Amino acid sequence: MKYKNISFDLYRYQLLPLTQDVQPDMFRKILNVEHLKEHKNIIFQELLSSFPELKSNTNNLHQMVVVNKDDWFVFKLGIQKSIEIENENFDKERINNWPHITVIINNRPDCQFIAISKNLKAFSSTNVVSNILSDTLRPHLKNYQLSMRVEVLFDKKEFWNLVHSNRGKITSIRFELISPNMANISKCLKVDLKQINLDTNSHRTCLELNSADDTALEIRENNEVIDGLVEYSSQGGGDIVFKINGLKRSVHTQKTNRTIELDELIVENLNPESLETLLGFFRP
Question: In this predicted model, what pLDDT tens digit does every residue of 164-191 receive, in sequence order?
Fold first, then answer.
């Protein structure tokens, strides 16, 4: 039997306290906002272990947990569709079909990755699955005084490709940034988003650059502030939106998702040991 490669889009989630005024939770030894930040991944793993039922507004879903061990959580998500077939009497009839995708979550505090396989027979995009997951988990996380922000990973070179190919035509760039709680991806920032979050409880901060009328922005790679914003965004810290002369619609860097290819045989036989060998695929 010949196996094919399965393509996964990569996302990163960040877990943030809903407020800086965290209420004590003696059961989980949460005394203040700093304690909540220290326990956030433990709380998230607890929530995954009691995995709530995922819901869709249009179709029935069926989920099956495949791996739940240490920092790994893997599940398959099927969606009820119907297909038309011809039976032995040459009559047409419709039967249920359950095309599915695989979701891999790594909950290590320095990773916090979600990989979602592509299957157009099941879902039109992996972003649909990401939204279903975050929408379902949001009210549960709220009970723990946490919020969850999920962003796709993209190659930072795509940002600079857009800049170079549209030189003299870019009139606006907006950075939509999640307040960081992962030191390993926020160290590149020259803007102190963490302090802004502490001072204002802002969970998403927008920084917008606009040129004067009838002129264009001048964006250069040796600008450390810009490069830091791009690096952070590409690692799942946010989205970047361009406005370009001659284009009616804005251009998003998130359209250039980072992907990985995994052998179908590996995907169908995932276990904690095989997942550890795949961790390198998730890193930039």
Answer: 999 999 999 999 999 877 888 888 888 8
The model's pLDDT over 138-165, given as tens digits with 9 standing for 90+, comes to 999 999 999 999 999 988 888 999 999 9
Q: Which of 135, 113, 155, 103 is nearest to 14 (CA)?
A: 113
Q: What angle do CA 58, 59, 64 make, to 5 degrees?
A: 140
Question: How wide is the angle at C-alpha 244 spanned by C-alphas 243 and 245, nearest 5°?
Answer: 130
Domain count for the chain, please give it.
2
Q: Which long-range contacts (CB under 8 A, 24 or more apart) does 131-138 make?
A: 132/54, 132/55, 132/56, 132/61, 132/77, 133/54, 133/103, 134/13, 135/55, 136/52, 136/53, 136/54, 136/55, 137/47, 137/52
- For the chain, the residue count is 284
Q: CA-based Rg of the chain, rounded to a whole angstrom?
A: 21
14 and 59 both lie in a single domain: yes
Report which of 123, 44, 137 is spatially closest to residue 76, judged by C-alpha positions.
123
SS3 content of the chain, % helix, strand, coil (to 5): 35, 35, 35
265, 245: one domain: no
Helices (H), 207-284: 224-232, 264-268, 272-282
Structure tokens at 41: 């991944």
The CA distance from 44 to 41, in Å, is 5
Side-chain-facing half-sphere of 103: CA atoms under 13 Å: 28
Domain, as residue range, for 275:
5-153+258-282
